[in-house]
Write a structure and sequence with these properties.
Elements: H1 2-6, E1 12-17, H2 24-37, E2 42-46, E3 49-50, E4 65-67, E5 72-76, H3 77-80, E6 86-97, E7 100-109, E8 111-113, E9 115-116, H4 121-133, E10 138-143, E11 158-164, H5 171-185, H6 193-204, E12 209-212, E13 217-219, H7 229-234, E14 240-244, E15 249-250, H8 251-260, E16 268-271, E17 277-278, H9 281-289, E18 294-296, E19 302-308, H10 319-329, E20 335-336
Parallel strand pairs: 1-10, 1-11, 2-5, 2-10, 11-19, 14-16, 15-17, 16-18, 19-20
Antiparallel strand pairs: 3-9, 4-8, 5-7, 6-7, 12-13, 12-14
């Protein structure tokens, strides 16, 4: 059982999909069923919307979410009326969405439900804590497309990544993109305690800074690193050790940095976690070959990868081949096809 390997170690688990129809809801239902078999009380919420019959954006069929009695659910006033599970409202929160106020309730009669939740990292964390306070043994956070921040360590203690054929008709490209995201999630962390405290303070204050080997901090006069690569490069010195970037890491920042100075090869770029990188696999490999080194304040705890070999467009991969090839490329993380079994 997958839940059996997670429960007792973690209180909050996020499921992050690489794209719509990558099998995220299948993974969620699998965890729900396993938790029910073990007699665990779980809480579920989504950073977007999930559980509808047809995806609103793609107009493709989706797996529905079935919840048993005792499950704690986070939804909204509008979505609750579309669900056939009977839910006792435990708390009406002050959080609002386009789908109404966010509610937390307990399922009194099993059925299908649509779930939603807040859309910022801070709010997701707060709602998750509320669900735990209301008696959940385990909270599962369903991450919406393009909101991989739900994997951030500040939100969830463990992450499951769902990937699949929907990414591309080319199985090699799907595996490449999945392996790339896994490598970002597993970027090395700053280990030294004093350095961690210093860098955490810089990131929390949302400053772009250069730290030298004596841990002196040079705060740069730029609001963001997105278009600040040249300025960062101009301020690098021979004894520079870290470039600290509080926000996203993108192509332009790195390309401008490389254009400006060779000193970047002797420093580590530090970001909060791997969800902050918005660079594709080929460009990422090119930057690494040029000597770019990236570390994180907090690595992401990736505990499993789930595969969906079927795409809504009608094509599919051979499930056994997809599982075997992905497992061969990605080491150190369990790779699972939940429909094939073997968890």
């Amino acid at each position: 059982m997958l839940v059996d390997k997670l429960y007792g170690k973690y209180k909050t688990i996020s499921i992050v999909g690489m794209a719509k129809n990558s099998g995220k809801t299948v993974a969620l239902n699998h965890l729900i069923n396993e938790a029910n078999e073990l007699g665990l009380k779980i809480g579920i919420l989504s950073t977007g919307r999930d559980g509808e019959d047809v995806d609103v954006a793609t107009e493709t069929e989706k797996p529905k979410i079935y919840v048993e009695e005792g499950t704690i659910v986070v939804t909204t006033s509008d979505l609750l009326s579309l669900s056939n599970a009977t839910v006792e409202i435990l708390r009406v929160t002050d959080y609002r969405t386009p789908l109404g106020n966010i509610l937390i309730g307990k399922v009194n009669l099993s059925g299908y439900i649509q779930i939603s939740g807040p859309q910022t990292a801070k709010d997701i964390k707060e709602i998750s804590n509320m669900v735990l306070e209301l008696g959940a043994d385990l909270v599962i956070i369903d991450g919406a497309i393009n909101r991989k921040f739900s994997a951030a360590p500040s939100i969830s203690e463990a992450t499951i990544l769902s990937t699949g054929a929907v990414l591309s008709r080319d199985i090699n490209r799907v595996i490449e993109e999945t392996a790339h995201l896994v490598s970002l999630f597993k970027l090395p962390a700053i280990e030294d305690a004093e350095e961690r405290r210093l860098i955490e303070n810089i990131i929390n204050n949302e400053k772009v800074a250069i730290v030298d080997r004596d841990l002196n901090v040079d705060i740069l006069d730029i609001k963001t690193a997105l278009i600040g690569g040249h300025i960062i490069g101009e301020n690098l010195k021979d004894n520079s050790k870290y470039i600290v970037i509080p926000g996203s890491l993108i192509n332009k920042t790195l390309s401008d940095l490389i254009e400006t100075s060779d000193k970047y090869k002797n420093v580590d770029i530090v970001i909060s976690d791997g969800t902050k990188v918005f660079i594709g696999p080929k460009d990422w490999l090119r930057y690494q070959r040029r000597g770019i080194n990236v570390k994180v304040l907090n690595p992401i705890n990736l505990v499993a990868i789930t595969l969906n070999p079927y795409a809504p467009q009608g094509y599919y991969f051979n499930p056994e081949e997809f599982l075997e090839r992905t497992s061969h490329i990605i080491k150190g993380v369990p790779v699972l096809d939940l429909m094939l079994g073997g968890v």
